[in-house]
Every structure is written in structure tokens, then in C-alpha cells.
Design brief:
The complex is a heterodimer of chains A (589) and B (323). Chain A is α/β, with parallel strands linked by helices and 589 residues long. Helices cover 23% and strands 19% of the residues of chain A. Chain A contains 14 helices and 25 strands. In chain A, the strands form 9 sheets. Chain A has a 5-stranded mixed sheet with strand order 2-1-5-3-4, sandwiched between helices. A 5-stranded parallel sheet of chain A has the order 12-19-13-14-15. In chain A, helix 2 runs antiparallel to helix 3, helix 8 crosses helix 9 and helix 9 runs parallel beside helix 10. Chain A is elongated, with a radius of gyration of 36 Å. Chain B folds into 3 domains: 140 residues, NADH:ubiquinone oxidoreductase-like, 20kDa subunit (Rossmann fold), CATH 3.40.50.700; 41 residues, no CATH class; 105 residues, no CATH class. In chain B, the strands form 3 sheets. A 6-stranded parallel sheet of chain B has the order 2-1-3-5-9-10. The longest helix of chain B has 13 residues. Classes of the chains: A alpha/beta (589), B alpha/beta (323).
Chain lengths: 589, 323
Amino acid sequence: MITVNINGVERQVPEGTTILQAARALDVSIPTLCYHPWLKPFGACRICTVQVQRPRGYELLTACNTPCEEGMVIRTDTDNVRQARRVVLELMLARWPNVPVLQQLAAELGVEKPRFRSEFCDEDPEACILCLRCVRICEEVVGASAIGYEDRGIKRRVVTPFNRESEACVACGACAQVCLTHHIKFEPEDYRGKPPEFLLGPNTAIFIPTPQAVPKVPRIDPEACIHFKTNGCQKCVEVCEAKAVNHEMTDQEIEIEVGQILLATGYELFDASVMSQYGYGRLDNVYSALDIERMLNATGPTGGRVLLKNGQPPRAVAIIHCVGSRDENYQRYCSRVCCMYALKFAHLIKERCPEAEVYDFYIDMRAFGKGYEEFYSRVLHEGTNVIRGKVAEVVQAGWSKQDEGTLLVRCEDTLIGRFREIPVDMVILCNAIVPQRDAERVARLFGLSRSPDGFFLERHPKLDPVATSTDGLFVAGCAQGPKDIPDSVAQASAAAARMLATIAKGVVEIDPVRAEINEEFCSGCRVCNALCPYSAIEYLADKNVSRVNSALCKGCGTCVAACPAGAITGYGFNDRQIQAELEGLLAVR
Amino acid sequence: MSKPKLALYWAASCGGCEITVLDIEEKILDVAAFFDIVFWPCAMDFKYKDVEAMEDGSIDLCLFNGAIRTSENEAIARLLRRKSKILVAFGSCACDGCIPGLANLTTREEILDWVYRGSPSTINENGVRPQPKVRVPEGELEIPEFYEEVRTLAQVVPVDYFMPGCPPQPPQIVKVMTAIMTGAQLPPPGSVIGAGDKTCCDECGRTRQEKRVKRFYRPWELVPDPDQCLLDQGIICLGPATRSGCGALCVKANMPCRGCYGPPPNVTDQGAKMISALASVIDSQDPEEIQRILDQIPDPAGTFYRFSVPASLLHRRRSAPAA
């Protein structure tokens, strides 16, 4: 530790501390421009000049890159210092008179009009002032070294190599972020060369997926993270006090032994871009229900405001029910939740954009739950235009300037028996709820059946809606079929209670009807292996036989019928028993 | 003490079973030395009347191959049954009906019609048909009656042991003969001898996967991987529904098992079992696709019941085929 004296205050600082760091630790303000805490000090702008007392007089030094020395006496508030900073700023202002960050500093230092005139004066308020923070962050932090500077003195410029589009650039935007003058801008474009719609997904590479995420920890998107592109950055590692960020982590498989499983794998949203007539993914301002849900979220990208792509609130919004459900071409079933969330959207849009007209296009309004019908009437009273008719198509209104951003919703209003074209500027699609795309694989994994709609099949639709045909395996929520939150909670609670009941009891009773493989006759042909709907048959490679796990077997007899060697017997239903039964029946006159 | 007496006979058969007896090579000398061969029409000159002259039960062992197609087959079967202590249904024809038994998929009338009229190589302008009895100047000629259907030996007379295979494999014959000659304890009557209790798969060294079949191939349609289960490769191999004992000869030659060793123990109907197993492993849920896959099997009866029509639950065709 060494002792320094700044403006008459003594302080111990570790060796190697710069004057700027020591001063900031003492809350002594020193103006900076080219300094950035993440970057090595550079001393380019000289605005951080301070006065260091020497035995015979003083010395003016830049605070950012001068290390403290034992017994150093530093003054930041003398006329000398102020004068030196003013001159620096005057010189800079002479060259870049309209840059706000310089103007602001000038006001603070009392510089009014520079005394000098530069023949290289650049009046652009976004001119580059050559702090070179961009070049340094690209090299030191990002590790891409995609930009540098050429020439020297008055000709110095920040450029990409050979003035061409740099292949090394990872488009991280760090240069734009540290730019003091907005000379470098970071403006993503979509495939049409236009700025994309506001991001409805995460907008940083490390993020907490949703405010309600469980566990509520951030994750890194390796597609977006700079570290995975340049091997540099890792700023998140530096700033994390808990040292919890680990870029080396990979997916792991963890085996957990359990006795019962509740399958609540949820649903997937029907991809509305398949129904090209509604323009999802093709026309601007056509959103899926989950897009809107994200937009309406107070922690979402718009802070809960309903906005068009251009940042303006919509003037007319169309909400289209039954997109992909109750449709012979896609899903025949009703997705059950859409009517109510569509009404919720109507209500919230009315609340947040009172000027907007809301049109709600429905086939049948299914407001069947507790308090639902009341909510429907409330939305009607709020002035939502409810139109009974399936929307035929959504099209761009026209190609002229005034039509820009206007969509036409074409439908037959079946209540007045008319064809209607309604201009709106936002369309919300109520996509169908569909099974997860890996449902077939999951069903095979667990030995489950699926109903014709593709959702997991419960044991009995009325008498046992939470159990499945496999013992110890329960199903809840939309994995079993579309349902709303109260229904999901009720089903999951029932399933949890059923599981707890078994745990409390401690033993499991199984039916005596079972299949058994006689290993003396089994030759391990493996015909039965893939057949078992309960995955109860395992193949023992060392003995070259298959074996039935009698705790899993339900005695359905599929394997008994299939076994070409006749090695599998169904307890109570072997051939001789069945023949004896038949003989007994036929003997009765 | 006189030597035990051995009889061998062929009924409706191809003669392969006679040859396989000789295929035991030098062991035939032991057999000839141990037994007094009293009847072997294929190899030695005996007359039926020689057998008729024997005392009942005087033949110690009779190996009877061939199915029962004609009245002569049946008469000799009854005769040998009467004269033999142990009657063995020797080979697939006697056990299950085998290739001659495939005639049960047609009728006597159709067979005669084809042979004496329909076949392109037949010239029979007078429409002559063989008659059981014909008068000729020298006297009355009698030929055996051609029955309506083919039966197995056991469907005609009680049989003590069954020795399957088309033909039974020489090592198995040696094993059975050695057991008899050394006076080993014989299994209870009605048993299958000279074969295993498992299926052909037990003797097959190929690697088997969980069975899922998306397409059936006939053997000429691809060169099968010699290390993978043929059924896994889509080739219909009857190994899973066939009794072990042959040593998996066909599959070792990269050809599928055709099922000559008959049904394994516990299986009554070999073909039905194989159909049931195959139907279970077709990997599709779509009825049209399943039909398409099934259509890749050109001759189901001839494929699954190649060796066992008379012994199966089907036994024979019941009705005229659809036109």
C-alpha cells in the first residue's frame, strides 16, 4: 500500500492504482472522455489532466494512465488544471463544435467559444472524436479486432480493415454502445433491409427467460453470446460477484430414480404461418396469441404497451378466433382457451389503447367457465365489435403511401349476412393448441397411448381422467388435451393427490393377470420387445431371452399372441385353460 | 440273442429322408451292425408280403417317412404300425405333411384335371383317367386310390415319436440312433425326438434388434447383412416359429429359415403363430400402409405353411378359391 494525497486528503491505495481510480475512490470528480472502466487507459483525450506536485514545481499528468507513487501529492482543482482541461476542450471543440458530449463538458468547465479555428472543422453532431473506445473494446473485450484506425494526426480515422465489410465483426454492437457521439450506430435489419419488429424474445445473450422462470437464474444463449464467437468478452464472469457464470457448462443427463411420474409436458402453439391466408410471418403487425401475451406483459419488451411495429399504438385491432382449431384442414378439436383469452386481449387493448377499435371474429363464443359469461358481457359493454364469422383472409390494404400499414380483414358477418372488409392495423391470431412435436417419442418412452388428436390418453375420460394406462404414470394439463388454467390446476392437484395416496400407503397392489416368458422355450427372437404398450419386456442379451417385468405388465396379452415360439403365457389364460373353458361351454346342452 | 429289427419306409415323400439316413456316413455301418434291417424298399429288396408274414410287434424300430397320400401309403402305415414296437414319424412329411401337404390347398379333382387334361404338356385326347381297378386281358389290375387329401402319419395311425426336419439332419439321426443303440431311456411316447425345445433363433448367431418391419423383402431383392437378423432386415424368416435342431443351416447360408423343423413345443399351428408374430411387428399405424406392407408377401399360405398344412388347424382348403 502506498499513501497519496489528493486535494489535501490522504489515502492508502494499493500499488499500481491510477490517479483516476484513487480520485474516484475519494469521490473526487475528474472528467473523462476516452476512459472506460473495461478498457486499458489510453490517455488520448487528455481531459483528465491533474496536477502532481514535484519538489521543484508541478507536473500536469493524465489521471487515467498515471500510477500513484508513494507520497504523491495531487491536485485536481487548481487553476492550472482547469486551464489545461479548457485548452484541451477548446482544441476539440474547434474541430468538432457540435458534438453534444463536448458541448456538455464545455459548459461544465466554463468554455464558451473556442479561441481556435480548425481548417478540419467537422460540424456533424455525431462526428467521431477519436476517443478510440470502439477500437479498444473490439480488441480488448470482444476479442474480434474487427475495427482499427488508420493514419495519424489530423488524418486519423476509425476504419474496418481495407475499408471493407469486416468478416471478423460478430455484430455484437459493443462499439456502438461505447461510442460517445453515436458516430457508430447499431441498427439491425431484417431480410427486407428494414429494422425488424421490436424483439419479442430476449434481447441480451444472457437472460432470465421469464420473470416467473423456475429456477429463476439467467441462462446464456450460445448463439448470441460474444464469448462463443470470439472466445473473448466474459464480462458477465467479471461482474458476477457470486462467480456463478460458467461458459464451459453443457447439457447433462441426470438419472433420478422415482416411483411415479406426472407427465405435464404442455402444448405447442399451432404454427399459423401454415395458414398463409392470415399472413402470419408474412405481413407486418400480424401476431400470434403468445406474441401479444408477451407484449402485454409489464416486464415484456414494450413494458406492457400495445404497439405497432413503427412504435405507434394501433388504431384498429382484429382478433381472429379458431386459427387452426375447429378446422377440418388442421385440428378438428376446439382449443378451449382461445375465446376467453381473445376476450381478455380485447379488454386489455381497450384499456391500454382507449382510442383503438377492437374487432373480435368468432365462430361460436365459448364462455363456459365460472365467471366467463360475465366477462364476455363486460367486454361487449366495453365496446368491442364482436363479429360472428370465420375470417377468410388478411391482406395488405393497398400499395400506395396512405395504405401503408393498413390490413384488410375479409370475412362474412353471418349475423347480418354480409361480406365485410374491415381495415385494421394490427391482427391477433388465436392459434390452436397442438401437442408437442415430440409427443410420439414421449408416448413411446412412457408406453402411453395418444388420442386421435395427438394428446396423451387418460385411462378413462370420465372416471379416471388423471391416470394413464401405465401404473404410476399420471398426466395433467395441456399434455392431456387443451384446457385452461383452472382445469389444469384441478387436474394436476388430483394427480398429485393420487400419487401422494400411493406414497402414503407404501405398497402397490397389482392385478394377478400377467404374462410370463418361459425361458426354456424363449430363443430371444425379440418379436415381443417392441410390442409391449407398457414397455414391460426387456431383452437379456447375456441369456438371449426376453423377460417380462411383472410390475409393469398389465396382462393385455399382446405378447402372448405374438410370441412365435409359444414361450409367453398369460396367467389364467393359457391355451389349455381356454380350451377347457370352450369344452365346458360346448358340453352344455 | 437275435439283433433288434429295423424297418424304414417311404410313403408320399421325395426320397430325401432316405438319403439323409445314408448321410450319417460311416455310422450307417454301426446301425447296420446293430440292427437287423428287415424292410427298406428304397435300399433293399423286400416285399410287402414279407412284412405281412412277420409277427405283430416284431419290428423293434420303424422309421416311417412320407405323408399319407394314397391308399397304399395308408395300408402300409397300418401294417407297419401293427408290426412295430416303436413307430417314428421320420421327417417333415410324416410329421406335418411337408411339401406334399401343400396339395391340401387344392383338391383331388383339380390335381387330376391338371395332370390328365389341363397341363400344357399333356396329350390325352381320350380323356383317360387312372381307375383304381381296370380289367385287362390278363386279368384285373389294381392301383392304389388317390385320396382327396394328404394326411400326416399321426392322422392315420398312432405314432410313438416324431422326428422333424426336411430332411432330419444327420447329426440328429446319429444322436437318436446312438441313444436307441446304447439303450438310453427314451422320452415318453408322443415326444419329438432329434430336435431342440427352443426355436431356430436359438441356434442362429445373428444380432437381433427390437423387431419393427417397414417393408418385406424376398431373398433375391437384396443381399442380406450376414450378421443381422434376417427378419430385422425385412426378409421373412420362419426361424422364430420353428423348432430348433437343424443348427440354423439356412440362415448360416444367408437364406431365411423356411420352417421345416415344424412348430416349436407349445405351438399348435406354426403358420398362424408366424402370421400373428409378423402382424405384430409391422411398424405402421396407417391401415393403407399396413395393407401395402402385407401385399409384399406374395404367397402367405405357401410361405407360412410350407411344411405344415395337413398338421395345422387349417388342414386343408375348405372352399373353392375366389375366381
